[in-house]
Amino acid sequence: MSRERRHVAVVGAGPTGVTAANLLAERGLDVVLISREREPGRPTICGEFIPEPEWARSILPEHLWWVVDYTYELLDLPRTTLTRIDVLELRLGSRRVVELEFPSRVFDRARFLRAAARRAERLGSELKLGTTVSGVELQRDGVRLILKGGREATSLYVDWLVAADGVFSTAARSAGLGPYREVALAVNQKRSRVRYPEDRLLMWVDSRVAPGGYAWIIPRGRGTANVGLGYPLPSPRSAAEYFSNLVARLPQLSDSSPEDDLRGRILPVAGLRDRLHVGRLLLAGDAAGTCIPSNGGGINTGMISGALAGSSIADGGGGAAYESAMRAHIAPILGRALRFRRIATLLMKYAPVWDLASLILPTRLVRSAVTLSDWPGA
Ligand SMILES: Cc1cc2nc3c(=O)[nH]c(=O)nc-3n(C[C@H](O)[C@H](O)[C@H](O)COP(=O)(O)OP(=O)(O)OC[C@H]3O[C@@H](n4cnc5c(N)ncnc54)[C@H](O)[C@@H]3O)c2cc1C
Fold first, then answer.
1. Considering 23, 88, 228, 288, which has the largest number of Cβ atoms within 10 A of its Cβ?
2. What is the overall mean pLDDT for the chain?
3. Rounded distance from Cα 265 to ligand 1 centre (Å)
4. H-run or E-run covering 82
5. CATH number of the domain that 248 lies in?
6. In this structure, is residue 72 part of a structural domain?
7. Atom 30 in ligand 1: which residue has the minimum CA distance?
8. Strands 263-268 and 183-192
9. pLDDT digit string (tens) for 281-311?
10. Which residues line the pocket of ligand 1, CB cutoff 6 A?
11. Residue 2 clears pLDDT 60, i.e. is over it
């Protein structure tokens, strides 16, 4: 086995990992970004929805607004935006529709990830794509990673490891942090000939389409849309069954046809893990549990955690500084979202109860549950 030593490794070229790698490289650290796919962002399994930066500012204290500026600069929305969304149309059960003003975008996630990975490379990071981390070993002064890319496994020794390798984080498991506790399955398919306005987004919260979860139409422009649904596991039926039921129920989809396969991924939906660092290993993004439990959105919070992990390493605060920033500023938002999800899941158990509850829910509460903030003012 060959022996190589670097300063920082970031595992995972998702939104979280590319953010951490860019920030670390920009601060002049010797970084290697490792990911198992050959092309960042492929295949895309995502609704590609992102709120305007004002939303991200509204959930963070002012001294962290630099993180928002940093992450939105990387997202490069002037180049990656596909459509602008003004209104969220929320269908609660079968009888209530709430329209919320929520300025946001649908963006080309694959284009963003490709560009951000290349940007990290231009800043001096090494990209190791098509490479899987099959295990990590914590050491007194760093971390050893076992990499599988070609025929034989190689060892890489680093001072710091940012594990942004998703909810099933190999790094977390091999460092003894155990599996993540509560997960949901979300599936999505790009479809064409969708009859739905391009400046709106449909969220349908109803157990008849997604038990304990919700379904969506997220327009991508030119009559195409991301159509999908997410629900907590375990669940009695398969995602394919739920999805064909959804397509049959929505008249907006009656003439639509698939543009790619129905693909899914598991998401963490119970808030942050109990520990976000051990030794010189920092967990970030879905690997840390940053997905918002009530809506499954994880790009923003993942990127924020990637920036915080990178800056904590670059500033010398290490895992402890990172963990305390995350507990102080991200955990409360996720905790709030989790409480909303628990209440909704309970009410959604019986469709007639949910229909009734939906009719009396104050709009302000619905807004809070979806946006987790008062922006842009209810
Ligand atoms: C169907 C669906 C729709 C969604 N829609 C939205 C949305 O509209 N808006 C939103 O904000 N969020 C959405 N999300 C959630 C969002 O996609 C995730 O929260 C976000 O991608 C988390 O980013 P991440 O970088 O932490 O992890 P990931 O995006 O999961 O990236 C992990 C990376 O690590 C790599 N990796 C994993 N294991 C290894 C290993 N052992 N070795 C090397 N590389 C490894 C993977 O290949 C991948 O590149 C959606 C999720 C799903 C499934």
1. 288
2. 95
3. 8
4. strand 81-92
5. 3.30.9.10
6. no
7. 166
8. antiparallel
9. 999 999 999 999 999 999 999 999 999 999 9
10. 11-17, 34-37, 45-50, 132-133, 164-166, 170, 186-188, 228, 265, 267, 285-286, 291, 296-300, 302
11. no
